[in-house]
Amino acid sequence: MCGIIGYVGNNNSVPYIIDGLKRLEYRGYDSAGISILQGHELVTVRAVGKVAELEKATLLANPKGNTGIGHTRWATHGKPSEENSHPHTDCTGDIVVVHNGIIENYLTLRDKLESRGHRFKSETDTEVIAHLIEENLLHVRAENDQDRLLKAVQKTNKEIAGAYAYGVLWARTPGLLIGVKNQSPMVVGLGKDENFLASDVPAFLKHTNKVLFLEDGEIALLHVDGVTVLDKDGKEKEVKPVKISWDQQTAEKGGFAHFMLKEIYDQPQAIEDTLRTARADFGKILGLDTTGIRELRNIHIIACGTAYHAGLVGKYYIEQLAGIPVSVDLASEYKYRAIPPLPHTLAVAISQSGETADTIGAIKKAKELGFRTLAICNVLGSTLTRTCDGTFFTHCGPEISVASTKAFTSQITSVYALALFLGKANGNLSQAAFDKAYKGLLALSKAMSEAVKLEYEVRHLTRKIYKADRFIFLGRNVNFPIALEGALKLKEVSYRSAEGFAAGEIKHGPISIIDKGTPVFMIMPHDSLFEKMLSACQECRARGAFVVVITTKNGVKQAKDVADKVITVPQTDDLLQPIIDVVPLQFLAYWIAKRLGCDIDQPRNLAKSVTVE
Ligand code: F6R
After folding, report:
1. What residues does each domain of the chain span?
2. Which of 30, 508, 587, 595 has the greatest CB tally within 10 Å of its CB?
3. pLDDT digits (tens, 9 = 90+) for 553-607
């Protein structure tokens, strides 16, 4: 999830672009760059780090021009470095491209272009766009340079696959900026004698609130005196701007009141982005050949907090799909307990930030014990990814809210992809079983889109219960970790007392804290343990609990007999169900915290990244 801003107008574009990039930093912040058309020459400045570093470098280079583009990066292909920062150029340096998204077939395209003599300077997928446009310019005919560039861009779009939004400048067409949108966001801001292209409205809201939201497959041609939009068939489309009434802060949150809420709603897209690499060859990532993968005898999952809960779900996945025994440790515990140095052990560290000191310490210990190490991480170039033998990136975009939501569901999805890979590689899964499971995985994002529609229902429910002193969450099997996560989320943002338990355990002690009116959340999709969960509902109800059941369609009828409230979540494969079941609990935490007036995005005493032991 990177940030793009482009400007065409009568003023020097540099201050507009630097300011726009600062306002887009919430979308990514590992490196940034700017390209300005100075006459017929493109001047590019790039810097590693936050936009402030780029600003310093730009002041020194002092480029000036009325047309320019900028980019703040959240690395997906290639580590954060100056060479990998955008804008990227073709061989001639006359074409520059900034891009947000993933070009799935970039390796094939890169090979093809290299065989035609193109020289690549970065490890990114983006650079293929610049070279493809260069190549296609040689093969298209048009009356003028603008039409030639447009045709080359249209031809390029037919060749690239994936989700992308990009902006292009060509030294031969000053005063023209082209924007393309396909499954990644791209908007146009219409000003007076100036127009803007951006990934998101806050980039230019200071200058105009008249916005065109581009649709997938559309191309926008921006000039100083107007914007032309072509639909997916290349036909000119009537331009209908929308007037945005958001203030700057609301705009950064995509119109949501808090980042936490925005990130809950980001989940269908986040899952889709995670799934783009779900068929990854983990053997290659880890540097293990087929024999090395087949020989794996133990897996140690290490993580903290929410990521630890993702690891707990992962244990069920790997043991069921790959038949390999898994232990899951809190990183802070793993480091200080005696771990037998058994051969053929893989240690998997799960972390959103990749900077959590406990997790890094634990994975270092795993390395010392001679284990192969894998990071499942959201931040390319982070310390964890540099420490491990290989990394699978969750690709869910920057998570700003301290309370983790989209990273959690992307982490579980990633471990599922790992479990499927291992199961197929070691023969535990037949081809048919693999295909069936993979099909289920691909349907996940759609189910997630349905799940986020539950906000209103959950919000309504919280009116009744938000003043309760304590909340209980119960689940079994793959949904036991979801009970833990539901409780953690609620504690974090609302400061209420909340506990999660394995439902079968309550009779061994925890039931004593259930009192008249205690809200008890039962996470119980209609699966093989449903009947047992029904008994747990009855036990809680008998103690006066206010029972809320989260179940799938087939469980609703029976759940109604034992619950005060039933929430129906979309159905997926049983193993994938926790990824969906957690969504109403995320809304629950959010709405209770909101009703209690808590600081939702920055809860007291907590930090997004815990870099101390
Ligand atoms: C909870 C939360 C924390 C983190 C934990 C690990 O919402 O965000 O519990 O999950 O601090 O952080 P990462 O994943 O960055 O290692």
Report:
1. 2-252, 256-442, 452-613
2. 587
3. 999 999 999 999 999 999 999 999 999 999 999 999 999 999 999 999 888 887 7
Which protein residue has the closest C-alpha to ligand 1 atom 6?
A: 304
402 CA distance to ligand 1 middle (Å): 8
- Write out pLDDT tens, residues 92-142: 999 999 999 889 899 999 999 999 999 999 999 999 999 999 999 999 999
Please state, for a pLDDT cut of 90, what percent of the chain lies above it: 83
CATH code assigned to 2-252: 3.60.20.10
> What's the CA-to-centroid distance between 352 and ligand 1, angstroms?
7
Residue 28 pLDDT exceeds 90: no
Decide: 358 in ligand 1 pocket, CB within 6 A: no
User: Please, what is the angle between helix 145-159 and helix 127-139, to 10°?
Assistant: 120
Per-residue three-class SS string for 337-363 = CCCCCCCCEEEEEEECCCCCHHHHHHH
Residue bearing the CA closest to ligand 1, atom 5: 305
Do 256-442 and 452-613 fold alike per CATH?
A: yes
- Take atom 10 of ligand 1 and give the residue whose Cα is closest: 306
Which ligand 1 atom is the nearest neighbour of the CA of 404? 7
Return the CATH class of domain 256-442.
alpha beta
User: Which of 404, 410, 415, 489 most suits a substitution to test ligand 1, by most atoms within 8 Å of the C-beta?
Assistant: 404
Q: Which of 214-218, 253-257, 347-351 is the most confident on average?
A: 347-351
Ligand 1 centroid to Cα of residue 488, in Å, is 11
- Between CA 193 and CA 439 the distance in angstroms is 50
The pLDDT, as a whole number, for residue 213 is 87
In DSSP terms, 33 is beta-bridged to: 46, 71
And the tokens for 496? 């209420």
Q: Which of 34, 12, 36 is nearest to 24 (CA)?
A: 34
Kindly indicate whether the domain formed by 452-613 is annotated with CATH number 3.40.50.10490: yes
Task: Specify the pTM.
Answer: 0.81
Task: Classify residue 170 by its DSSP letter.
Answer: E
What does the block give as tokens for 49? 């780090």
pLDDT in tens, 486-496: 999 999 999 99
How deeply is 531 buried, as exposed, middle or buried, from its count of CB atoms within 10 A (0-12, 13-18, 19+)? exposed
